[in-house]
Amino acid sequence: MRPFAKTYSPSDEDTNGLVAAATGATSPVTQAATSAGDGLAHLVTITSAANISALTITITGTDADGGALTEAITGPNATTVTGTKYFLTVTSVAISATLGANTMDVGWADEFTTPTLPLNWRSHQAAGWVTVTGTINYTVQATLDRMGAGITQQDIDWQDLPDDTVDTSDITASVKFVLEPATTAMRLQANSYSSGASLKLSVSQPDI
After folding, report:
1. Domain boundary among 109, 130, 165
2. Cα 194 from Cα 158, distance rounded (Å)
3. 165 and 194 part of one domain
4. Structure confidence by residue, pLDDT tens digits, 74-132
5. Final residue of a domain: which of 109, 136, 158?
6. What is the Cα–Cα distance from 16 to 33, expressed in whole angstroms?
7. Whether residue 101 is found in the same domain as residue 149
8. The pTM is what?
9. Are residues 78 and 100 in the same domain?
10. Which of these, 194, 188, 153, lies nearest to 6 by C-alpha position?
11. DSSP 119-149
């Protein structure tokens, strides 16, 4: 497999980047955008100054690889709630009942995953390096699962990968890592980051 390098520069988190001040009974609500615009899949946030916890907000879109993805999130009680699925695009935000005079914002968090990066599982181990710019907390993840048509990123059993210098997750520095033979794919997952942060991923896997 040819060596590759990819740089990921996430957009700043934005609590109303997808929906700003939705109100009333219209569903799906009007959207300001359908993605964070950075090519990364983010957790979705929902914010309201009111108690809208009786509502279910259904988010529809795609995952980091473009696969169909849906998540039902319970509305917040005068706070911000964060979903658990990573959306590359959001094509619909539906509410289970009217918002009335209350307002609701929908945006993205400072947590993301990259697209799935397939590897040659029949080949030698792969060596990788992650170079950090700015402040970012991330995890290198890999899988032995089969890749193929109909398999989405949500279906894959991702495992945190230990590196040579720090813990298996919550990495904040540039690190090197090794992916053993039979590894089918990898990705990076960001747990938090500051404005202007970026990750450069370089991977090399010799052919047999």
Report:
1. 109
2. 25
3. yes
4. 999 999 999 999 999 999 999 999 999 999 999 999 999 999 999 998 888 888 999 99
5. 109
6. 9
7. no
8. 0.92
9. yes
10. 188
11. --TTS--EEEEEEEESSEEEEEEEE-SPP-T
